[in-house]
């Protein structure tokens, strides 16, 4: 379906998506979801035909739910199989991570904490988007020193991040799935500078454990955990992405 859309100029390209200008409007852009999948800061790369459409469907379902719950996002709609139309934003170069269950990199940084420890409220961490520095963890003070956001914006992102997590946690719980952690990003709307939940929220953005069982995970960690990339392993990963796209469709069907 993307070949039927009149894209404007390419504005940016990342590992899993391309941002295109709208040919007639300055206030909106297109996000084209690619079939690429990466891990380890891009050290592992694979192509999963069909993954772009599944990622687009998942992120569309998630953002639609957030909009229905009153969250300010950049989402406008889904066009075709792998394209979203969104409000144009100047992205804040931070990843905002909410953690409910202690696992993964958090444990490596906090070996004194036992895996599976539940956080209430969720722990919120900020990481500076800098590939060369491997996206370092940053404090509120460092964010302000680098002039990435002011104190009020930091608090807005922290509160909004927790709110987004709560909404998605509740949606997943209805299907007996534990939302372990979640990564989101924010952008400043091009028209008035207001902070919006932006970018994408798909199966690369969270850890989800059916029944709270880590061994049944459905998210990108399955790809990271492959001892080596094989056709069979990639088929399993793609099947998980398809299952998650279907499960998130239930978010909006129920709504």
Would you mind describing this structure in some detail?
- This protein has 6 helices and 14 strands.
- A hairpin with a 3-residue loop joins strand 1 and strand 2.
- It starts with 9 loop residues before the first strand and ends with a helix.
- The longest helix has 24 residues, at 231-254.
- It is of the alpha+beta class and 255 residues long.
Unreliable residue stretches: none
Q: Count of helices?
A: 6
Question: What is the alpha-carbon Rg in Å?
Answer: 18 Å
Please outline the major beta sheet.
7 strands, antiparallel
Helix content: 25-40%
Ends apart, CA distance between termini: 27 Å
Question: Approximately what portion of the residues adopt beta-strand conformation?
Answer: 25-35%
Count all strands and give the number: 14
* Overall pLDDT score: 95
Give the CA-based shape.
globular
| Elements, N to C (H/E) | EEEEEHEEEEHEEHHEEEHH
Class inferred from helices and paired strands: alpha+beta
Give the oligomer, counting copies of the same chain as homo and different chains as hetero. single chain
Keywords, please?
255 residues, alpha+beta, seven-stranded antiparallel β-sheet, five-stranded antiparallel β-sheet
Record the SSE blueprint.
Layout: E1 10-13, E2 17-21, E3 28-33, E4 36-39, E5 44-47, H1 51-68, E6 75-79, E7 83-87, E8 89-91, E9 94-101, H2 105-109, E10 118-128, E11 137-138, H3 140-145, H4 151-173, E12 177-189, E13 195-198, E14 206-210, H5 221-224, H6 231-254
Antiparallel strand pairs: 1-2, 2-3, 3-7, 4-5, 6-7, 8-12, 9-10, 9-12, 10-11, 12-13, 12-14
């Amino acid at each position: 379906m993307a070949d039927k859309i009149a894209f404007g100029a390419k504005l940016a390209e990342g590992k899993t998506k391309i941002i295109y200008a709208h040919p007639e409007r300055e206030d909106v852009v297109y996000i084209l979801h690619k079939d690429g999948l990466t891990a380890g800061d891009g050290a592992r790369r694979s192509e999963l035909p069909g993954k772009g459409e599944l990622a687009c469907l998942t992120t569309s379902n998630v953002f639609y739910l957030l909009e229905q719950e009153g969250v300010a996002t950049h989402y406008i709609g889904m066009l075709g199989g792998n394209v979203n139309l969104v409000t144009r934003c100047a992205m804040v170069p931070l990843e905002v991570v909410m953690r409910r269950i202690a696992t993964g990199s958090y444990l490596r940084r906090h070996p004194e904490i036992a895996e599976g420890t539940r956080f209430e409220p969720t722990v919120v961490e900020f990481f500076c988007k800098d590939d060369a520095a491997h996206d370092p963890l940053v404090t509120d003070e460092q964010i302000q020193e680098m002039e990435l956001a002011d104190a009020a914006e930091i608090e807005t992102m922290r509160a909004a991040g927790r709110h987004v997590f709560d909404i998605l946690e509740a949606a997943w719980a209805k299907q007996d799935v534990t939302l372990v952690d979640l990564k989101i990003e924010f952008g400043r709307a091009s028209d008035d500078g207001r902070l919006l939940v932006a970018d994408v929220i798909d199966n690369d953005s969270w850890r989800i454990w059916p029944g709270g069982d880590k061994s049944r995970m459905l998210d990108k960690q399955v790809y990271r955990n492959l001892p080596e990339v094989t056709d069979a392993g990639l088929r399993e990963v793609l099947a998980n992405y398809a299952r998650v796209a279907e499960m998130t469709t239930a978010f909006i069907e129920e709504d």
